[in-house]
Amino acid sequence: MEQQLMDEELPVIARFEVRRRSYLGPDSVIRGRPPAFAADASLLIPLLHAMALTRAFDLKAVALQRTGRLGTYPVSLGEEAASIGVASAMRDEDVLLPSYRNTGAQIWRGVKLEEILLFWGGDERGSFTSGPAHDFPVCIPVASQTTHAVGVAYAFKLRREPRVAVCMCGDGATSKGDMWEAMNFANVWKLPVVFVVANNQWAISVPLKLQTASETLAQKAIAAGFEGEQVDGNDVIAVRAAAERAIAAARAGGGPSFIEAVTYRLSDHTTADDAARYRPPEDVQARWKEEPIARLRTYLVNMGAWGKQDEERLSTECQESVEAAVARYLATRPRPPESMFDHLYAELPHAYVGQRRELEGASDA
Questions:
Q1: What amino acid positions are annotated as catalytic residues?
Q2: Which of 2, 30, 275, 359 would disulfide-bridge 338, Cβ 3.0–4.6 Å?
Q3: 3-class SS at 202?
């Protein structure tokens, strides 16, 4: 008892807090003090279009995989706002380091749909896209892109370039040592990097409660000495506002930031997964009430900026864009087997020259 009283008298040397950003609720009603662009339909409609296109593309990609015309595919159903909101806040000269569930961010950044299909079809030409040449290709290993992002941001600082590295990953990445090391050095060196974690509640089949006992994921940035903010990841207005603030601070020399976008994975982890084996369908059904596209659509309708004809036009445009991309993807001739050697070395070592010739001869036969 005496020791407890003595401990209570010890001075508090630091206090921390995590703020949560949310403007557009599941009922499509604005709360709080939203950013000015929340009243600008001309800015919000492109966000809706991009999210709808991402969802239409995802559904088609699943159909292609089920019919043997695409490899394993990670659906972003329910998480579109996290990707689109962040990407829409970036400048062209910034660098995106995406995870495998950031299809929407890639689309916003100018990657063609058929290029995304090529990547998931096992063709590395899908990593050389029409998006900004400096953007990184999709990262499959969990969290390894976080250290890449620190390297990119370090180069920006050395060159005195007002550019920002934006690293996107899932909640599972926060359980990896890569991310802790990346965040530590990002703040030690005060680098222009923003870490965005889409907390979709599941790391494949592992629920968040079995990953961490932390009340939020955003607070993990505090251990590295910088700010972490939680945002409603199904509110594209809040996501974009948080990303704009973090990117602007990084560009101005304010160092790194961490955004936890709380959302929910409405789909299986990938087409190789069956989420019904580890989570009850009623839980997923309840989460549909929070999904981001209906939320923004209803808000625009209430503004008088969206109607039935707009919705029909959007649906038609998305379907036509997806079908045209699929046709181009399916019409792409496969690369010859020997092309696997073409981008390994500036000058192919002698040990591989014979192997390449052997494959070249087999493909000519």
A1: 265, 269, 278
A2: 359
A3: strand
Q: What's the full length of the chain, in residues?
A: 365
Q: Can you tell me the distance from the alpha carbon of 353 to that of 360, in angstroms, rounded to the nearest whole number?
A: 11
Which domains occur in the chain, in start order?
A: 16-28+36-270+280-334 (3.40.50.970), 338-365 (no CATH)
Question: Which of 242, 290, 219, 248 is closest to 32 using CA atoms?
Answer: 242
Do 101 and 77 contact (CB within 8 A), yes or no? Answer: no
pLDDT in tens, 54-107: 999 999 999 999 999 999 999 999 999 999 999 999 999 999 999 999 999 999
Residue 181: strand, helix, or coil: helix
- Per-residue pLDDT band at 312 (split at 50, 70, 90): very high
- pTM equals 0.94
- What is the rounded CA–CA span in Å between residue 64 and residue 86? 28
Tokens for 284, please give them: 């997923």
Kindly give the pairing relationship between strand 165-170 and strand 228-232: unpaired
Answer positive or negative: Cα dihedral of 281, 285, 291, 294: positive
Structure token pair of residue 103? 């299809």
Report, as an integer, the average pLDDT of 116-142.
Answer: 95
Q: Is the Cα dihedral 257, 179, 221, 293 positive or negative? A: positive
Q: How far is CA 251 from the centre of its chain?
A: 20
pLDDT per position as a tens digit, 175-205: 999 999 999 999 999 999 999 999 999 999 9
Distance CA 88, CA 356 (A): 43
Which of 163, 162, 128, 170 minimizes the C-alpha distance to 145?
170
SS3 97: strand
Closest CA relative to residue 218, chosen from 155, 277, 174: 174
Rounded CA-CA distance 340/327 in Å is 25
63, 326 contact by CB (below 8 A)? no
Average pLDDT of the chain is 95
